[in-house]
UniProtKB/TrEMBL annotation:
Species annotation: Amycolatopsis iheyensis
Pfam (any one): DUF6529
Membrane-crossing segments per the record: 12-33, 53-74, 95-114, 120-141, 153-174
Keyword Transmembrane helix among UniProt keywords: yes
Name of the featured protein: DUF6529 family protein
Amino acid sequence: MTTASNRTAVALLVPLVVGAVVAVVLGVYGSLHTPTGVAVNLAGFSSTQSVKAWLATVVVVLAIVQLLSALKMYGKLGGAAPAWVAPVHRWSGRLAFLVSIPVALHCLYALGFQSFDTRVLLHSLLGCFFYGVFVAKMLLLRKNGAPGWSLPVVGGLVFTALVGLWLSASLWFFTQSGLTF
């Protein structure tokens, strides 16, 4: 292996390992921590589940903005991206992350890592994976020498995990309870 390929491997490996450690630590904490049942609630919402479902829906909408702006920046939607696309991409990502925090804290702290049925187990696994791959993506953003394909692939994994989380919780909630607030 050449020195350049060693640097490329390290530039990719370090963020992936750190992300994997984050995912495992979240899963272990969620498994060992006794759930408190303490709920995140906002005025105007009928239940904790509705707060989480709607906040997660906002996150998914912002993630779609992320996806479309990334595709435009990478030239996959035709032509060069206007100057406003990069700031929209950055800010939609920041907002998505911030809006996801109360949902994740409630899930991890109040409910923990659960596996009493397939949907809940999948949701728990996806939640840990999502934050692990998110950390890897954030670390790859500033890594010189990482392969050009790595950021779009890891970003795609972030988006896929988020959609899986939304499907396994918010969509499930909306189909069970309707579009309640």
